[in-house]
Structures are given as C-alpha cells and as structure tokens.
C-alpha cells in the first residue's frame, strides 16, 4: 500500500537570481529561445531494410515517432526508388500517405526494357508537419499497370517497385516547455515514443553513500524496465548542473551547489522542476531529510506513479504487502499456470492483420532462463485464430515462426469464418464456434530466453482464367487472444556458469525479480564509472524482468558480509574481495592493471570453442598489455554450491565503458556466452573452460537419466547390470516356484 500527498506550486520565475531563496524560480526556468534540432534517419535506421511493393503486396509502411516535448516544424522524405520496366508511366504511380492523409503522388520512372539500369531515381517530398502525432506512419501504395488493355492481371510479377533502404526521413524539431507536473512523468525524462537509447544523468552533491547509491540503483532499474529494448545508461555527475533532463539526489545535509538555497525536504519527496539555466529541460528531484528517505521516495516513484500529480509528491509511507515469489518477473511467462496471448499484448490491435500488409502478427515471449526443456516435445501452444474465409478455389495459409525460424503452417479453408449480419451491428469477424483450433508444440531447441512468435496470414487471389482475377480487399486475420501457452509443467534446472542467461535474462539474480536473494559488492570509494556501471547493470536487470530491484543488498567490498544464502554480483575493482574469491574458486580470466591471465580449452586450434571431450586440455597464459579490455566472469560461489557469482571487471577504470556499451547494445549483448566474456573495443570473445555445476531441481529419475546421458558407456554398463539384476531376481523367483511345485507333487 502506498500513501502519498501531492501539492501544486506556482509557475513564475525570477531571471535575475541564480541562487533562489524559494522554489518559484525553478517553476519555469530562464526564458531562452527554444532550441531547434535537426534529425535525419534512413529507412534502414527506421527498421526497414528496403521496401518492395508488388501486385500481391502493394502497400508498405515506414514508422517514426515524435517526443512529447517536441513539435515538428519541417518534414520531408527523400525517396530513392526504382520500378519495373514493364510499368506504364501514364497509368502507374506510388501514393504517399502520412497518417492516412494523402501527401504526394510519385510517378514511376519510364525505363527501357532492353537496357541495363543501375541508377535510382531520387525525389524529395515535403510533408505536412502539423499532421505529425506521437506515433506516425508513412504509407507507400503502388498503383501498377503494365497494359492499356482491359484484360490485366493485378498480381502479375511484372508489377513491382522498390524503395531503397538509403531513402531518408528528415525533420526539424523544436523543443517545447512542458508544465512541471508529475502527471507527465516519466516524460520527458523518458519518452516511450523516443526509440533512441535512454541516457539519463544521475547527479549527486559528491560521491554518494551506500544508501544513496542503493536508491539510485533502484531508480535506474525502474527506468531500465521502462526503456526495455532501447537500453539505458546513467552517467554520473557530481555537484554539476546538467544540461539535459536529469535526476538529482539530495538530502537536507547534502545538496548540490545549485540547490544550496532550495527549501529543506519535510519527508521523502519527489519534485519535477525546470532546469534554472536550460528552461526546456526538466530535473527530477529525489529529496529526503535522510538518506533512507531517498529510498522511500524512489519506491514511491516506482509504485505510486499513477496517483502522482502536480509538481510535488511527498511519500508518507510505502508498504510492500507481499514478497516476490520465484519466477514471477512481470516480463517472464508465468510458470504457475497457462498464459493467454491477451496477457502478452503491447497494444490492442497487436493480434490482427489485414490483407496486403507485409507485417506479421508478433508476440514477445520471454522464458525463465533455467527452464528445463531437455527431451521434451516443446512448449505447448493452444492456438486459436479467425480469418475472412477465402473462396473455394483460393489457397490461403497461416505460417507460424519463432525467432525467424519456420515452425508450422496451416491451410485457411472456406469454412474457417462466417460473416454475421445483425440488425444492430455488423461484426467484423465471426465470434461463433467455427474458430480454428490447433494444439502443437514449439520445439524446445528453437526457443531462447527472449523469443518472437510471428504469425503471417497469406491471402491468395482466385484466378480462373487469363482475364479473370477476383478483386482483393477486406481480408482480415486474427490470432485469438484466448490462445494459450503453458509452461507450468516444466522444471527449473540449468548448467552454470551461463553468461548467456545473465545477458538475456539477468539470471541467476532475477530468479526473484526484486533481487531479494542477491548481494551486490562494489568498492567502498567508487569512481564515477564504477557507479555508472552499477546503475547500467541495474537498468539491464530491470529491462529483463520489468521490475525494480527493491531488495538487492548493496555492500562495500571491505565489509564483513555473510554471503551463504546469496548470489553475488561484483562491480568494479574490489581487489581484496576478488583475491578472496580467487583463492576459493576457479577464475578463467583475471585482469589486474596491465597484467592479464586467461585459462582456455584448446579444441582444433580454436581456443574459444568448447568441447566436453577436450575440456581438460587447457592452457594458461599470463601477459602484460595496456590496451582497453574488460571482462564478465561467472563462477560457482565459494560460500554455497547452489549459488553463483558474476564479476564485472576491467583493466582500468576507464575500460568499464566497454561493459556499459555492451550491456546497452543488443548486438553485442547477444554474443555474451560461456563462463567468461572478454570485451575489447572491437570484439567480444567467450571462454567456456571450467567445471560446470547445476542449480535447480529435477525428479530423481529425470535427474539420473539426464546426467548419465553424457556418459553413454556408464549408462550401458548400468543398463546391463540392471538387466542382470532383474534376470537374477526373476531366475530366483522362477526357481522358487519350480521347487515349490516339485515339492507339492511329491
């Protein structure tokens, strides 16, 4: 339960005073001219690897977004395109729409069919900026004709046009001054319509204490959950007024100089104010009388945001009514029951697609990293779908894939859906019992921690003769939100160390989404980059679970800590603690200033490959080198065989940027595997050497069978011994029965 009070404040300012004696100067900031920024994106940067329009798929989209605190002043598209030489320029063209409003008609380029054409036609189209919303769609629709005759096949292969991926979208955006009101929050600090990586400075009066650091880490994980796939970094600043949106942590005794005369907090307080020097930027103030109240204020943000309004919110108290349970991360598929597709939606129409669209129905499915899928049929899905029924002669299909790998296809029959006519309304699709049901399994080997399920409806046209093609339009396909996926019967068991599980799922720390069984160890006098790495890791973990790390224990490396029941995350240079770990565990990578040591398995001359048969053939190399280098290393906890340690280390303090960049780069993040990952400015290397251990539980028979499967000779011997024992027992039983029968006859 969360109790908070809110209050409104005035919106005036005083441009003559730099150090205010009250809050009014912060209400609006200084009235400098609104900044205007220019932006340019290629279609490739907008996630379109070129666009091909054809008679079967004549329409395609490019989407872009606009932040809540910006207004578009100029907008244009520079098209680089080509088309089929067969298209008639008098009849063919490309229609361009912005948010369903026709903006331009682009003629096709007349091309001679008997010549080679290697150049693209370039045309710049000016679009109307006043039509821009938060989420915007530029739609291209091809009207293609290849003959003047009445008889024409609208799906003919000669009808096509291509828009190059180097086509660009350009616009100028003017910053606007939002009212300082928590009703907007987390905008403008984080805007869901800004697809760029979130970079949010964390500002302190000086090196923060452990308690203040914990408050900042919790808030970082909350912002990381919001940023999700964008990634989030949190630069650390000391006693410096930021030039962009930022978060300021301050107690009554420790304030940055630019808040020196700011009124003292009367309790855990959250305020949103304008930057006094940069009017169009906002500062989120996390205030408290003590450092402990900063944690309460941050918890208030994470749990009480929906009821925060006005400029200020004072958090009276925060009650956590129920502790988190294992595997209950909001972004993970639930393991205690079947999950409906409707529970996985990001927006209402996500499960619907229309004829002519080149987009599939897509769902993100995130599995617990330790889900045990060995020798299972796969992940069961009870799929229900509806569609506009095709004609008897048209063959339409529904294809399903996971992570871009085809799984199964279904034929869409004419009996699949019926139009229902009512006097009151005309339903778009039938809701009767004629929905199609399919029960099948997704092969376990194709499923990863993060998965994308895709369903593609392919509606075909009916062609009875050279001049007889049925008109297309109006076909719809829907994946029913009552379709279910069920992993409740799966066990949890995983071989460790497994840095892929950490990179993609934050595991093993995220077994409990609030990190209640995790201890974070960092230096007693951390540098800015060590703190930034801590906050970036917190944001990464929040991204994987969708939940803040409320209950992670933060400890300095020089503290006397009981780590028996904890998974351990080590950040930065903690020499004494790492030395203690190294004495009790096997580290395959060690970085200490210019000295570097690595132990590797050697298999077919490739030291980064791993083979069970060759895991003992290892070499240790110790050398001195001075270039940038960082590493993420996983190993078994020396304090508890059921617990794990992940250590994030760097050759020197500046090299921690390699870690921060990797954790916010989806491409590099996907390369993290094994028990050690070595990162230089250009490549990511993995090491797989080291003794494996397992965490989790299995039924006894499955446990024995699983572990013996790696040793077929032992399994064969045990099978033979079992058969001999069974044979011996049967022989004794039969002998006893025979002896008894003989004695009876005598």
Automatic annotation (TrEMBL):
<dbReference type="GO" id="GO:0030244">
    <property type="term" value="P:cellulose biosynthetic process"/>
</dbReference>
<keyword id="KW-0973">c-di-GMP</keyword>
<comment type="subunit">
    <text>Tightly associated with the cellulose synthase catalytic subunit.</text>
</comment>
<dbReference type="GO" id="GO:0005886">
    <property type="term" value="C:plasma membrane"/>
</dbReference>
<keyword id="KW-1133">Transmembrane helix</keyword>
<dbReference type="GO" id="GO:0006011">
    <property type="term" value="P:UDP-alpha-D-glucose metabolic process"/>
</dbReference>
<dbReference type="InterPro" id="IPR003920">
    <property type="entry name" value="Cell_synth_B"/>
</dbReference>
<keyword id="KW-0997">Cell inner membrane</keyword>
<keyword id="KW-1003">Cell membrane</keyword>
<keyword id="KW-0812">Transmembrane</keyword>
<dbReference type="InterPro" id="IPR018513">
    <property type="entry name" value="Cell_synthase_bac"/>
</dbReference>
<comment type="function">
    <text>Binds the cellulose synthase activator, bis-(3'-5') cyclic diguanylic acid (c-di-GMP).</text>
</comment>
<dbReference type="Pfam" id="PF03170">
    <property type="entry name" value="BcsB"/>
</dbReference>
<keyword id="KW-0472">Membrane</keyword>
<keyword id="KW-0135">Cellulose biosynthesis</keyword>
<keyword id="KW-0732">Signal</keyword>
<comment type="pathway">
    <text>Glycan metabolism; bacterial cellulose biosynthesis.</text>
</comment>
<protein>
    <recommendedName>
        <fullName>Cyclic di-GMP-binding protein</fullName>
    </recommendedName>
</protein>
<comment type="similarity">
    <text>Belongs to the AcsB/BcsB family.</text>
</comment>
<feature type="transmembrane region" description="Helical">
    <location>
        <begin position="713"/>
        <end position="734"/>
    </location>
</feature>
<feature type="signal peptide">
    <location>
        <begin position="1"/>
        <end position="17"/>
    </location>
</feature>
């Amino acid at each position: 339960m969360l109790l908070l009070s809110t209050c409104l404040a005035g919106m005036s300012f005083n441009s003559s005073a730099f150090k205010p004696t009250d809050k009014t100067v912060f209400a609006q900031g200084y009235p400098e001219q609104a900044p205007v920024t220019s932006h340019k994106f290629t279609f490739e940067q907008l996630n379109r690897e070129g666009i091909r329009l054809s008679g079967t798929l004549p329409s395609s989209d490019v989407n872009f977004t606009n932040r809540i605190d910006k207004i578009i002043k100029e907008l244009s598209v520079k098209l680089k395109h080509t088309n089929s030489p067969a298209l008639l320029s008098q009849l063919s063209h490309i229609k361009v729409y912005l948010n369903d409003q026709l903006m331009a008609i682009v003629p096709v380029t007349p091309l001679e069919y008997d010549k080679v054409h290697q150049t693209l036609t370039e045309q710049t189209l000016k679009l109307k900026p006043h039509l821009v919303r938060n989420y915007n769609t530029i739609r291209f629709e091809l009207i293609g004709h290849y003959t003047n005759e009445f008889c024409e096949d609208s799906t003919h292969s000669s009808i096509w046009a291509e828009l190059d991926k180097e086509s660009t979208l350009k616009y100028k955006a003017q910053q606007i001054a939002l009212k300082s009101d928590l009703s907007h929050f987390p905008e403008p600090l984080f805007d869901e319509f800004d697809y760029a990586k979130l970079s949010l400075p964390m500002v302190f009066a000086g090196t923060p204490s452990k308690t203040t650091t914990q408050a900042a880490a919790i808030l970082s994980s909350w912002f990381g959950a919001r940023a999700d796939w964008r990634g989030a970094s949190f630069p650390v600043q000391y006693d410096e007024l930021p030039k962009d949106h930022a978060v300021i942590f301050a107690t009554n005794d420790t304030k940055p100089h630019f808040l020196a005369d700011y009124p003292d907090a009367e309790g855990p307080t959250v305020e949103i104010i304008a930057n006094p020097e940069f009017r169009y930027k906002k500062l989120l103030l996390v205030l408290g009388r003590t450092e402990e109240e900063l944690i309460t204020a941050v918890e208030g943000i994470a749990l009480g945001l929906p009821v925060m309004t006005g400029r200020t919110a004072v958090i009276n108290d925060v009650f956590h009514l129920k502790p988190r349970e294992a595997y209950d991360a909001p972004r993970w598929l639930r393991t205690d029951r079947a999950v409906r597709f409707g529970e996985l939606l990001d927006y209402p129409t996500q499960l619907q697609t229309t004829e002519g669209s080149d987009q599939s129905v897509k769902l993100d499915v995130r599995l617990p990293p330790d889900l045990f899928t060995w020798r299972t049929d796969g992940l069961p899905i009870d799929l229900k779908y509806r569609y506009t029924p095709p004609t008897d002669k048209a063959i339409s299909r529904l294809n399903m894939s996971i992570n871009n790998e085809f799984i199964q296809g279904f034929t869409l029959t004419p009996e699949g859906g019926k139009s229902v006519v009512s006097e009151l309304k005309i339903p778009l699709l039938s809701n009767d019992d004629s929905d199609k049901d399919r029960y099948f399994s997704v092969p376990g080997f194709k499923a990863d921690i993060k998965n994308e399920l895709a369903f593609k409806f392919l509606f075909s046209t009916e062609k009875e003769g050279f001049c007889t093609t049925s008109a297309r339009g109006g076909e719809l396909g829907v994946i029913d939100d009552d379709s279910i996926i069920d992993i409740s019967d799966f066990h949890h068991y995983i071989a460790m160390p497994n840095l892929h599980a950490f990179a993609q799922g934050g595991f093993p720390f995220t077994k409990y989404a609030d990190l209640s069984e995790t201890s974070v160890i960092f230096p007693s006098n951390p540098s800015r980059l060590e703190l930034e790495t801590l906050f970036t890791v917190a944001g990464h973990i929040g991204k994987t679970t969708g939940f803040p790390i409320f209950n992670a224990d933060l400890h300095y490396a020089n503290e006397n800590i009981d780590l028996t029941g904890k998974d351990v995350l080590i950040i930065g240079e903690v020499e004494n603690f790492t030395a203690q770990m190294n004495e009790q565990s096997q580290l395959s990578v060690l970085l200490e200033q210019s000295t570097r040591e690595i132990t590797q398995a050697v298999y077919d001359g490739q030291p980064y490959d791993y083979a069970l048969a060759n895991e003992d053939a290892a070499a240790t190399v110790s050398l001195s080198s001075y270039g940038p280098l960082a590493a993420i290393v996983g190993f078994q906890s020396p304090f508890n065989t059921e617990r794990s340690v992940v250590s994030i280390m760097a050759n020197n303090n500046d090299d921690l940027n390699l870690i921060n960049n990797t954790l916010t780069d989806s491409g590099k993040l996907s390369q993290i595997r094994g028990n050690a990952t070595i990162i230089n400015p250009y490549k990511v290397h993995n090491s797989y050497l080291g003794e494996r251990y397992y965490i989790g539980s299995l039924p006894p028979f499955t446990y024995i069978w699983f572990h013996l499967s790696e040793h077929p000779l032992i399994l064969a011997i045990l099978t033979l011994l079992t058969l001999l024992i069974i044979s011996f027992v049967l022989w004794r039983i039969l002998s006893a029965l025979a002896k008894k029968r003989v004695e009876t006859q005598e």
